[in-house]
């Protein structure tokens, strides 16, 4: 007679397959959720004083949502250029607004980024301002922001 506390042994192969399928299901769910939250971006470039300033920004930004912006600065030989200070100036050229100039974090050689949001819909300009060798280099990028 079996004791009420007797546990039937589980085959090791069953444990492996159960863990494998559970991990696979979790991985699929995480990938699907990450894909839903990914914001499509575009990269625009401007050449200023022999330097290329590229801005990666949301492709179709919507007001009042948080976004990442990344500026990359390279020389004519496509080598990263270090700046002592980089900030992004967010303005709406058609109207007077308060100053919104977040200072960028250094993300790597010649790469700088900020996270911020657009306060309202309309036509916006992002000016990337980089201090390089004691002088300010500016590149601007115009684009529309959609309503929330």
Characterization of this structure:
The protein has 148 residues and is α+β, with helices and mostly antiparallel strands. The chain has one domain: Sandwich (Immunoglobulin-like). It is 18% helix and 44% strand. The protein has one helix and eight strands; from the N terminus they run αββββββββ. The strands form two sheets. Strands 1-2-3-6-5 form a five-stranded antiparallel sheet, with no helix packed on it. Strands 4-7-8 form a three-stranded antiparallel sheet, with no helix packed on it. A hairpin with a 7-residue loop joins β2 and β3. It starts with 11 loop residues before the first helix and ends with a strand.
Secondary-structure blueprint:
Layout (H helix, E strand, L loop, with lengths): L11 H26 L3 E8 L2 E8 L7 E9 L10 E7 L13 E4 L2 E7 L4 E11 L2 E11 L3
Short description:
The protein has one helix spanning 12-37; strands at 41-48, 51-58, 66-74, 85-91, 105-108, 111-117, 122-132, 135-145. The protein has 148 residues and is α+β, with helices and mostly antiparallel strands. The chain has a single domain (41-145), classed as Sandwich (Immunoglobulin-like), CATH 2.60.40.10.
């Amino acid at each position: 007679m079996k004791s009420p506390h007797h546990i039937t042994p589980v085959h090791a192969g069953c444990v492996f397959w159960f863990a494998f399928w559970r991990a696979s299901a979790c991985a699929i769910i995480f990938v699907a959720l990450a894909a839903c939250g990914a914001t499509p971006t575009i990269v625009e470039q401007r050449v200023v004083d022999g330097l290329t300033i590229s801005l990666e920004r949301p492709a179709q930004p919507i007001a009042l949502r948080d976004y990442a912006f990344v500026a990359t600065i390279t020389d004519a030989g496509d080598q990263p250029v270090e700046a002592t200070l980089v900030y992004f100036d967010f303005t709406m050229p058609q109207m007077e607004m308060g100053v919104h100039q977040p200072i960028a974090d250094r993300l790597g050689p010649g790469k700088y980024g900020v996270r911020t949001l657009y306060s309202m819909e309309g036509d916006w300009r992002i000016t990337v301002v980089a201090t390089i060798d004691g002088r300010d280099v500016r590149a601007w990028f115009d684009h529309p922001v959609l309503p929330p």
